[in-house]
Amino acid sequence: MRYTRRARQEIYIALLFLVPSLLGFAIFYLIPFAESVGASFQSSSGGFSLEQYGSVLGSSSFRKAAGNTIWFTAIAVPLIVALSLLIAMWLNQKVYIRNALRTAYVLPLVVPVASIVLLWQITFDWNGALNSVLSYFGVERIDWMKSNWSGTVVILMYIWKNLGYNVILFLAGLQNIPTSYYETADLEGAGKVKQFFGITLIYLIPTTFLVILMSILNSFKVFRETYLLAGNYPHERIYFLQHYMNNMFVSLDMEKLSAAAVMMAIGILGIVGILFQVERRFRSFME
């Protein structure tokens, strides 16, 4: 394909604007990750070896952290996707104070993390608001963050913080569906359930794929809130991969840290690749 002189100039200008971002991405992401990959293959004697991967995989702490991370993602992501779709469909209708509700769902995105953690500490601490309410009704206090309930607390915090972003994406997708499709379905006698599966879900495939992808990526970022809420060594139910890697960093065990980071990156890439394949096959099937 031959480009005109004007088209080539526009390409050069676009590349010129992209260079600073590409340099920053390379310096702060690509190059450090490449160094981590190299460090993960270094043995204790300094040579090339898979020793670090075997050591990490043989660690009970790593297996516990990986299992908890998979458990958290498998439960939290479907919940937040389903809940955000239901709320988006509700807000897409003529609801009283709809604009105020939309703003309320977005607020957790702009609230500082420290404030979020403080709110949840006040709520779920041993002497917190929730236990005070339980005590008032004669129910025994629960140590929320030092029991298996801690996993539920972190899931709720993850949903509360990221729900608004998913709702915005679903709302944009819903508003791009022509209303004439629903009007035609009504004339043909299709009920709400058939319209949902035959129109709404079909035209929300790209949006749903994006929401699932972003929800999975955000589920791997929950360490920040969990760390501030429960510290370096939380209850074993919320001991995630990021906790393991953070502890390796504190002990300056860079080889194991690099091996764990590479395996987590491969896992995330594998999940993204599977999602792309599923979305592509589902779209071709519906066409």
Textual characterization of the structure:
- By secondary structure, this protein is mainly α.
- It has a domain at 71-230: Orthogonal Bundle (MetI-like fold), CATH 1.10.3720.
- Helices cover 77% and strands 0% of the residues.
- It has helices at residues 5-40, 51-57, 60-91, 98-110, 113-124, 129-136, 149-175, 179-187, 192-203, 205-219, 223-230, 241-250, 254-286.
- α4 packs across α7.
- The longest helix has 36 residues, at 5-40.
- The mean pLDDT is 84.
Question: What is the mean pLDDT?
Answer: 84
Q: Percent helix among the residues?
A: over 70%
List the helices and strands in order: HHHHHHHHHHHHH
- Measured distance between first and last alpha carbons: 30 Å
Name the CATH superfamily assignment of the domain at 71-230.
Answer: MetI-like
Number of E-type strands: 0
Strand content is: under 5%
Largest sheet: none
CATH architecture of the domain at 71-230: Orthogonal Bundle
| Global Rg | 24 Å
- Helix vs. strand class: mainly alpha
The low-confidence runs, each spanning 5 or more residues with pLDDT under 50, are none
- Note the overall shape: globular
CATH class of the domain at 71-230: Mainly Alpha
Helical element count? Answer: 13
Q: In the CATH scheme, what's the topology name of the domain at 71-230? A: MetI-like fold
Question: Can you summarize this structure?
Answer:
This protein has 287 residues and is mostly helical. The chain is built from 13 helices and no strands. The longest helix is centred in the first third of the chain and has 36 residues, at 5-40.
